[in-house]
Amino acid sequence: MSTINEVILNKKTDLNPIWIMRQAGRYLPEFRSIRKENPDFIKLCLNKELSTEITLQPLKRFDLDAAIIFSDILILPYGLNQEVEFKKNVGPLLGELNLDEILNLNDLDFIDKIKPVYEAINLVKKNPLTNNKTTIGFVGAPWTLLVYMINRKSPKLNLVKDFFINESKIKKILDILDRFLKIHIKHQVDSGAELIQIFDSWAGLLNEKDLKKYIYNPTLSLVEYTKSLNIPVICFPREIKNYKNFCDIVKPDVISIDYTTNPKQILKEIKIPVQGGMDPKFLLTDKENLKKETKRYLDIFKDHPYIFNLGHGVLPETDPDMMDYLVKTVKNY
Ligand code: CP3
Asked: pTM of the entire structure?
């Protein structure tokens, strides 16, 4: 069994597995050189040979315990025929949302459009570099996808003022997302994904009173579905104010915490396996500092099932040598 599964299923506390959000990405020169030749990011995600190669790049350099498939949460709206474009220094820009078109979409058209993602998972899983490692599939949480689909760009600090104005439209989109996210999860699992992470990057934008409708209920539906496939699920409701309530209601197998959250309080309150937490900015400092902070997390969770990761994705300006040092620090702990 892979070390990550030992932590999740057997609650092992002495293995210290590690993988990193955005481990395949812009901080690696070998990624940047592929990216330079492939200006269309979605097309790159849908090139099964290149997305397999990018997924495996960090595994060639570092002793990581998982491969996370190189794709994006916004491949889902793309599969629903909403245009998605990634603009340099701006981020994702989405086209107009045509609800009628989405409501009439059939499963096979959706699957056909993003099929290379599933083929890449299959190739990654079969590659010897992932022997004894966990192949991770992922989706965006319904709330975060709704934010991008309606806002049509990153909400950065807040949502557009009239975001909630059309409640019946929002309800229809959430229903569509529930249906197609389950299809997307199922196909990733059938292609070899052994663990699913649900990214809710914008969970922190909501007030307490809206959490049930937009986060708890829609996420619970996906968690229960993934569990019914016998696949464990990690939730990352970034900057949600109350991780304990989230865990009590949504019941993921693992909770991934962000870097604004106090890990000692998490240890006190939460009984399920924990992942992540360290601020990615520590990778931009020096080795001594990085080691100290890494050990701080490992010490706090030393008697708790814990998967080392960061509190958000690795930053593009990170020196790969610092990543190497981080992985070695965790492995030699
Ligand atoms: O973790 C991995 O290595 C797997 C691949 C992965 C990517 N995006 C590749 C990517 C994963 C798991 C994601 C998730 C994702 N995508 C999230 C959730 C996690 C988070 O960061 O909060 C979100 C919100 C997105 C949407 C997205 N994709 C944004 C906002 C951007 C642009 C800004 C940024 O952070 O890079 C992307 C582009 C993107 N997705 C890149 C990569 C490697 C950079 C592409 C490039 O410009 O070369």
From this structure: 0.97
